[in-house]
Amino acid sequence: MLGLLFSSPLAFFLILIGLLLSISFHEAAHCFVTDKLGDPTPRVMGRLTLDPRAHLDPLGTLLIVLTGFGWGKAAPYDPYNLKSPVRDTAIIAAAGPLTNILIAILLALLTRLLGGNLIAVFAEFLIHINLALALFNLLPVYPLDGGKIMRAILPRESSLEYEATMERYGQFILLFLILPIFNGQSAVVQLLGPVINLLTNLLV
Hints:
mainly alpha
């Protein structure tokens, strides 16, 4: 992504701003739903805001600039404040990806209204980014949102086994998925890329 800064500075900054805002809205959604479910942790920590400064991680943001891949600050929550910890944790986890999907749909409507001008082109980039964030985070691997959702879906015994496996190997699985070890591409790109492109084309 850094190479784009020198070839097209305007495109670089537009894409960067869109990506940072998308990540911030994702994390903010987690925090707002956490608060609604009775856990005041995000409110106490000043995370009930759409201000990107509250949600962006310095290292994750730097990596976004350098590589196009990074992360935001994990949304804080205390499962002991939730009425049904497993179920409510899954609801909180789902809020982030669902927000990105909603943003993609709203942007798609915007592109249809505006036609083929510069704003519509930028909106198409943001649609792709938000779909990528949503699908990536829905992968059933800890510590991604999909891992927490999967834990709630599985029967109790299978859920406990899954949780134990993910706590032990989840980060290694995630690392394997994101490293560019397949002809310069990551497994995530090869697995999700065609799906993201298909959904983007359907929306725009």
